[in-house]
Specification:
Layout lengths: L12 E7 L5 H15 L6 E7 L11 H9 L16 H4 L2 E4 L2 H9 L8 E3 L20 H26 L1
Parallel strand pairs: 1-2, 1-3, 3-4
Length: about 170
Amino acid sequence: MVAAPQPRVPGQYRIALVCLGNICRSPMADVVLSARVVEAGVDDRVTVVSAGTGDWHAGDPMDRRAAALLTAEGYDASRHRAQQVLATWLDEHDLVLAMDRDNLRDLRALGDAEADRVRLFRDFDPDEPGGEVPDPYYGGDAGFRTVLTMVERTSAAIVAAVVDALG
């Protein structure tokens, strides 16, 4: 299991998930990871948010295909509204996870961040550590299903690592 960094504030953990526009990958990961946090009984100590590196979709709901798939799988995708990541997030969150290497590069360009706190989401993937979450936006429904599968298994591993870090 990949270790999560220690919380900045003892007993509390803040996770930010970042993709390009915050309407597909990172909101899917946000919804799934948040559900896993609740299932683990640590939702009073762990906060999950998501954002995009760009501002094109700020204020928009999740991509309809992503929302439809999440809803069909029993998740609540209704509350998401896209937002842009802020440089302050690098210091405010315990873990900032990028969906791909371009997003990771953009995050690191925002300012100095501790390397173990700004990483790829799939660094925690038990099947393919260090892989990227592909952007399904320009593809069909199968791409969203692939992303959901990656996000579900990786979210379980992230929760286990965060619970361990919290002690």
